[in-house]
Every structure is written in C-alpha cells, then in structure tokens.
Amino acid sequence: MKKYPSFSGVHTALVTPFKNGNIDEAALRKLIETQVDSRVSGIVPIGSTGESPTLSHDEQLHMIDIAVKTADKRILVTAGTGSNSTAKAIETTQEAERLGADAAMLVLPYYNKPSPEGIYEHFRAVANSVQIPIVIYDAPGRCGIELTVPIALRLAHDCPNIIAIKDCNASVEHIKKLHSLLPAHFQLLSGDDIWTLPFLKAGAVGVISVASNLIPLEIVKLVSLFQVGELAQAEELHERLSRLFKHLFIETNPVPIKTAMALHGLIQEEFRLPLVKLTQEHREIFSQTLGTLSRKIS
Fold it and tell me: Is 4 designated active site?
C-alpha cells in the first residue's frame, strides 16, 4: 500500500480573511505563518470555517495556491474541495492536486441528499480521479445526511487513498465503533474542538480545529499532552478551554471565531452574506468568554 501522510495532531480549519470584500492575502499569509510557528500539523483551507460556499471557484483555487506556497511543505495542506456535484468535486480536487495540496477534504453531498449508495459512488468517483489522499468530512448538522459505518468500511476497503474521516457526529460511541472496524491505517479526526479529548481517548488521532485559528499553541499543547500520556494535564487544559469551545458555536461558525480574531487584531471583522456580525447580546457574552480565557492561559 502507498504510504500516505499521518494526520496526527492539530489541523487548523482556516478562516478566510476578507478586506473590502476581497480575500485579505496579507492577513492569510500571516495567519499561516503563525500556524507553522505554533507547530500545528497542518492547515485546512476552504472548509465551512473558510466560508467556502461564498467563494468563487477562482477564489477557492487562489486560496489553495496561497496556502500551498506559504506552507512550503513545512506543514500539511488539506484543501477543502467538496461539493454536492460529483463532477465539480472531481474538478476541484484535481485542481487542488495540481496546485500541490497534500490532501483533499470533501464534505458529504448536501441538499440533494443522496442515498448511502450515492454517497459511496460519489466518494469512489472522486478518489479514483486523483492520487492524493482523501479525508471525508462527515457533518450531519450541515449536510442533512451522514456517513454510515457500512459505507465508511466499503470506501476504506475499495479506495486506498480515502484514509481519514473528519467526524462531527458528537458521539464517542460512534468513534469507538469506527475505530474498532476500520483498517489500522485509517485515521479519525475530531471535527469539533469540544470533542477533541473524548475522541482522542476513543481512538482518534487528532483534530481539525476552529479554535486553533486563535489559540494554536494551546490546542497543540492539548493534543500533545494526550499523546505523551499526560492525561490529567490534558483534561485540565481541556476544561480551561471548554467555555471557548462551546461559545465558538454561539452563532454559526465561523462568525464567532472571526469575531474573536478581529478583536485580537488578527483579521478584519468581515463576512460574506448571508453571514453577518454577531448579535450584540452574543458579542457581550463572547467578549466575557475571551476575557476569562485570557486570564486562564496567561
């Protein structure tokens, strides 16, 4: 079997910084450099955190190109290339491969709600069209469908380059079941910061993190503590960060994380419609959370 990269550790689901309606390339490059300096394992541009539905195809490819060139093989770049159109997903994944992405992450086809067999054929078609590894993004809350265990097993068996799942099912039992049944080389990743430690205990190898846009050092430390067997310290850090993890979804992601980053001067507080700024009520709650967090990790 071909040797594919390990997804162990922290992979940051990058926000897309905007400035005056356009991608803020300077802020994006600075954000990536911060991720590299913080020793994350990788970055994931053009996911839901990156407001991918609002980016044009050319903008998506430009984001991938910037990420690949800025990362410069120092960390993995897993490009979000999913679509509810199989033909479009194939095209974008092939373009990501051409641009030098190390892997591609594809969300389940949303809105048109294919059957389990349709999901299988969708991912098999994409996987067969490229050589780079594929991460399946299972997010039932966004897609209205989920990756069943039997389909996950078939894909893992039939498609050698499908090697990981980003799981947003919020179920430790589901992760345990996948871990017990999938091949040993297959990798599971938490898709939600608040489930990182419970999923690691259940067999996951890492996290695709929203919070690490803001606090990459802390998220890397959390996973590293678990990996070296310092479970008590990992649990203590997870507890200190849990309020932030929860409030990162006080409104639709990525509105809260981009708000936090803007408050820290990292990016402009700018979104693309239909996403808008936090309500005043939630802004006050979130600001209190950030203030408490700063005291806890200072």
Answer: no
